[in-house]
Fold this protein.
Amino acid sequence: MDQDFTSTHKRGRFELTYRDGWATLTVFPPQDASRKVYPEDVTARMELLGIPRVRNRLINYIIEEAAGEPRDLVEWPGGAALTGKVSVSISEDEMTGWVEISQPKKGGGDPDLEEIVSVLKGNGVVFGIQEDAIRKALAEHRYNTRIQAAEGLPAVHGEPPMVVFLFETERGKPYLQMDYGRINLRELNFVQNVRNGDTLAQTGGPTEPKDGNTVTGTVVPAEPAGESESFRPGTNTRFNGEGTAILSEIDGNVYIQHGKVNVEPVIHVKNVDYSTGNIDFNGTVIIDGSIADGFTVKAGGNIQIGKYAGKCTVEAGRNIILKAGMHGSNRGTIECRGDLYAKYIENAGISCQGTIFVEEAVMHCEVFVSGSLVLKGRRAEIIGGRVIAGKTVWCKQLGNMFETSTTLFIGVAPLEYREYLDAVHQLKDKEDLLNEVDEKIEQIQRHIHTLNKPEEKILLAQEQLKEESEELERETGKLRKNVRIHPLIAARDSMVVVEGTMHYGVSVHFGRNDFHPPHKGARKTVLRPGIKEIIESGYNRQEPPDIPLPPGDD
């Protein structure tokens, strides 16, 4: 700090300071005529500090000038020992440099900017020196404090173009959280209409990589841009002229599939009946009302039905939403490659490659689902029929008090299980046919024994039946072997969760292991496949298990 030597009795103010090898005198203008700097005060202080003597004329000149700026008096090598010292430190990553200035002794001054920069460079700090920060610290006399004096330049790593989708990409997916309770089918709407020419997605330019520097001058290499997010037009979409946006080419429903932005045409009808006929369409079909008995609706995209579906056929390439439900009367069928949402389903055949979400009931249905069957409504019951689920079945009531036969096959892919069932049915059919052929052979043999000389055609029929029996025996043997060695092993993450009662009359199969509740039923039950047997545990509402859900196509 520049030392202020001020007289104590109405005298002017002056400073004697060491700067760049010289002793300097600064005389400040007096505040009034009675306040004046006297030469003898200056010479006395110079003698005390060991500053060489100078002519009084020079001292008097500086006093009369009173410019408030330092004026050189005389060379003073010894003054260097009084000046504040500068130390330098560098961060471990060499991206920051600091200086610390010690407080000068009496008569000593602060190092100036040039001196500090010189010390920085002498210690290897050659890049990003912050001269303004150093000037400010000097002006504020910040001593014995670490002051940031240099900052490196971070590398700018390359970034691929940022993609912004201008539509909801995850609409309609509830990603069911068990804590949230029921699914509100009124909120499910997989259709998002756009118009021809609408911008569906756009991208900003990529960030070009730019190398950085440490304060010591070392180059920090920038990483190149990685792979960009999928930004490709698909069906009925195109790039704009600059390739920075995807535009719709038609009016329809926008969605993402396999990394591409697509727009499918949409058919919107009030009802499907004799006024429309059957519908077979490659896009999405929205039906505000119902589907009349005997009609078929097929769509390559989604199908949304606002009201009743009865003895009809519904097939979708993606998702099906039955906002009311279906009463199939054993003639209604549903098939979808995505997920199925319904209020209830009764007496219908269902095939779903995703997951089935139902509010109230699945009754007397034949259900094949690759994912899970989840019921989370007020009733949430499965009664009668057969369910083959690749992952999980979750409900509140399984079966009923009337002991209705209800069968579940869990943890096995429906297609694989169908193959197994087909083999079992074929084996039964072949065994029945073999028994019939054997009975015919026995009848012919009894008849032959009653004859002295059997006719040639009877003997020929006997021979043909024996050949047929041998062939059936070979086929039956193969089928028995296939059924016996079929790899019917349940997935480890599959399970059955019954929040309420599992009634007598229910049978649950995990691969070749099965479970049957006692006559009084079972309460709050979770079943999982074990190595040799089914593992049974209790259901805890506070800590429900997770449902394994397969990823959707959209």
Q: What stands out?
A: The first helix runs from residue 39 to 49.
